[in-house]
Amino acid sequence: MNKMLKLFIIMLVLFCIMCVSVNSLSKIGSVGDEVSEIQSRLKKWGYYDGKVDGIFGSATRNAVIKFQKNNNLTADGVVGAKTLAALGISSKDVYNSADYELLARIISAEARGESYLGQVAVGAVVLNRVEHPSFPDTLSGVVYQNGAFSCLYDGQFYEPIADSAYKAARDALNGLDPSGGAIYYYNPTVATSKWIFSRPVITTIGRHVFCS
Length: 212
What we know:
Blueprint: H1 3-23, H2 33-44, H3 58-70, H4 81-87, H5 97-111, H6 116-131, H7 139-143, H8 151-154, H9 163-173, E1 184-186, H10 194-197, E2 201-205, E3 208-211
Antiparallel strand pairs: 1-3, 2-3
Helix pairs in contact: 5-6, 5-9, 6-9
């Protein structure tokens, strides 16, 4: 292996590590201004009585869980997009331009033939998975999870991104969720998994059935 190839591999690994770090949501061990803002709002509303220090410790997590329970959110102590929205903190601060590009790409690959709302709904499912404890807690982790999206294996993922997918990604990141909180979707005309047919259906948009 020549030196240039070794250097390329090292740079690629460092880039992947950096992407995972940037995309992480606020949870135990997180530090920074976003955590301080979360603590400030929880303190203002009586959920948190600790120090606003920007360190996401057990006291902050417990306060987040109380807030989530009182607001009918998944009480996992992880501050995802929905919890941020309930706190009045924009989810734009959580996801960066690389996330936006990746979300648009997965929307385009999975739903370019669907209506605009159908495309937004697919993007919302990806974001809902980021928040759900059963899935990876980063957008890239959800998209690249083994076996999660067939478009990564049939070549559709690498096709040019449809213009509508960019707009759908932006609206999904801004909180629009036509799926009704779904974490799965499927096309009943091509799906073969008996398990997916057993999931509780939330809504149907175009050719996709969205379920919990």
